[in-house]
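Morning!

This is the sequence you dropped in the shared folder:
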Amino acid sequence: MDKRRLPALLLALAGAFALAQPLALLAQTQPTPTLAAATQPSAATPAAAATPDPAAPPVPRVHAVQEGENLTTIAADFGVTVEDILAINNLANGDLLQVGQELIIPGGTGEAIATVHTIAAGDTLAGVAASYNTTLADLIATNRLIATDLPLIVGQTVPVVSRTGSASPRPPTGRAYLVTAGDTLLSIAAAHQVTPAALRAANGLAGDLLFPGQRLRLPDETATYRALPEGWLDVRVAPASIGQGSTVSVYVANLLPGTPAGRLGEQPLTFAPSGDGYAALVGIDAFAEPGLYDLEISGGDEHGLWQPLRIRLPVTATAYDTQYVTVGEALDGLLDPALRATEDEFLRGIYASFDETQRWEGLFQYPVTTTVVSAGYGGRRSYNNGPIEIYHTGLDIAAAQGDTVSAPAAGVVVFSDVLELRGGTIILDHGRGVMTGYYHLSERLVNVGDTVSAGQPIARVGSTGLSSGAHLHWDLRIMDVPVDPLPWTQQTFP
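The structure's back. Tokens below.
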């Protein structure tokens, strides 16, 4: 169908949805970005409910009136009644047809589905249009909008002609791009290795006219968009599925100057510059309560404040095993909970420090040549069949006495000494609140203040402290929150 004639068609559709309330348009002209890699909308901006009107059948066919045709001949050709065509096109008089006029032919199924969308908290008109793979202009035409300065009302119903082939919305995909002076559709397409046609389709553009400050989405099936408050250019949260023990990366970009701050649940977010925006890492404790957690971000400087942003993120439970460890009688004294509490408190003062300099690049390496994990992260732990009062904060990797321990990534040595429970211990600071610990060492090869590179030897495997045999315990913490180190060997952060 010729898109140049689509607004006329959509105007006709509006009368078929008498149940829809007049819709007011927020001051937003382009679909805006949302969280990358998210496969479902968060609870803060829930998926819009598609509530089909039983009286509004699917719209499978559009017919352009030809010379010599009338409603009687058209109805006969398509096997429908004149009354049906009049009703779905909101026509009072079928004798006033014009050559080229587009008529909706009821019945059956097809590429266009007429449905009704219920406005949810956080919805914008641009976001609704994008979720149904239609355009803002088409949605305006469908709803016969005049007012552009009134807010949407939660619970309000909006007629939509979906181009998804379904009455259910689908999240539009893409990456954020902010148009700057001198940009053209062709230059943007070339810079991002997409075609101008794909760029037009992703943004519902009828032509090539752009303006500075306009938000575009670049076609990308790995990123999901949702409408964001005014001023926010981009917000990405990874991974898409957050479980207990996860490392969560939060990236934000705003049109206003300033540095963001925020929190996830009760944990503060410490942002540092990253690309065109800011990034923060936060750890989810192994036994954080599953459920919805508020991600809140704000920012600004003396020139103005960012509009606060709140998103609800689900944290799911992770399955952990129970680890039974037997140690000799000579080590019974190390099982004292008071001793553990004292040592934990001492290390907290080291692990909780923050340096915004990111020292690592790419994936973390395994610190020993073997990758055999003898005890995983998060396992509930019992010593000598005693009560289960602690969990395993890292990985135990099988290794022989004296094997070389290497830095998994670049960092600075912030601790190198012997502790009662953990034995020979080294802690590396990789920047951005990320630190790694290495316990039960037989020999330490680096000192506090040393800068180490990825793969550099730092220690030898041993069985010192509270240990039942030679192995390497590897901790990875973000602002003192222990997280599973394995994802760091499989994906890059932030």
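Headline: The chain has eight helices and 32 strands.

More detail when I'm at my desk.
O.
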